[in-house]
């Protein structure tokens, strides 16, 4: 008996979904890979500030924190510009390449041309602000690709999978390039020459991936894919009022922001080096363990991301978020209870305890990866819902508003971590891996490492209770959008009778 072909999402849902080719998705998300190269380079900024511009370490931290907040403030202004402009060839490639060019020029000016020339802090801050503007422009345009490439619920989560793979792979690869290939050529010291060579190599590599990203979006980067369906105006324009209405009146978007902000704060605090010192160095007695586990988690994380895309495509972004947030919550509680019930100093000396700790930790990271994939699909759903709700297609605004919250939360993460460490006695000196574990260190570390994520996941579950864009509702959203677009299409003249 012949096997019946598998029905497509369009056939099952009764919606003519827009789909992208696999290579287009893979190439388009290389914009995220290119951005990750600059992310690694920015990690060397503290060395550049000190070696190339004579800025004190403490002042350097303040500068980077303030400019991070500035990044979030600039995003909405750039989003308004991106939403308003219209070009006959689209807009993604223009803003992606322009943003890349601005950030690249700023990097070359900082690392190559201006470094060690006695130009001082003023020049550094000015050029870094230019870098922030270019980065924001490139990132917003790159993140707009997801809702434009595809609205097929089975395919949309795969966009986030590729972005996640690059987010893991590129930082690891280019950190190796910097520390293993370039650093030894300069006596294993972060000198001005070493930083300059690293910048040139990184910028050149990023350009290759940026061009590939532009190829990935070339077919869909057309004016008709950015049109509004606000039939009350002859020519719909995006205004500041539209941006405000998105934040004020779009209920699912506000719930998405609450979910993202709570999870992001927990992630940022947990990733602080000082918290890693408390957990891996002092409590477990092996400072290198955190880095080792991070590398070990890459491959399982990618596997979970691929599985998460399939799960999200079948159950919708809300269904995947709720289910896997519960799983994350359960695993985090289990691991926290494990850490409280055993002597952490003895874990690495016992094979059974080590296996239990590693297994649950990797499962927790993998489950969080599924939530990340679902979150990426959810943002694209919100763009389509806003188009249905207000008639305005606002992918840049949704991205910028999320980035603003993301930047503010990220800037608060280090402050919260350092404040918490100060509460347990580390006011004059920072914790060191050689310090002895105490009860206060144990409880504070577990509160930050597991307690804060647990609180974030609880906030997500509460926010998702009123989030109405489940899989069935998104099908109806796509049907309504398709119907309203069909109404706006010009009527084709009937063929002449013969």
UniProtKB/TrEMBL annotation:
Record has Nucleotide-binding as a keyword: no
Superkingdom, natural source: Bacteria
Keyword entries, A-Z: Membrane, Transmembrane, Transmembrane helix
Pfam families in the cross-refs: MFS_2
Protein name: Na+/melibiose symporter-like transporter
Acetylation recorded as keyword: no
SUPFAM superfamilies in alphabetical order: MFS general substrate transporter (SSF103473)
TM region positions: 25-47, 53-82, 94-113, 119-140, 161-183, 198-218, 265-283, 289-309, 321-344, 350-374, 408-429, 441-464
InterPro entries listed in its UniProt record: MFS_trans_sf (IPR036259)
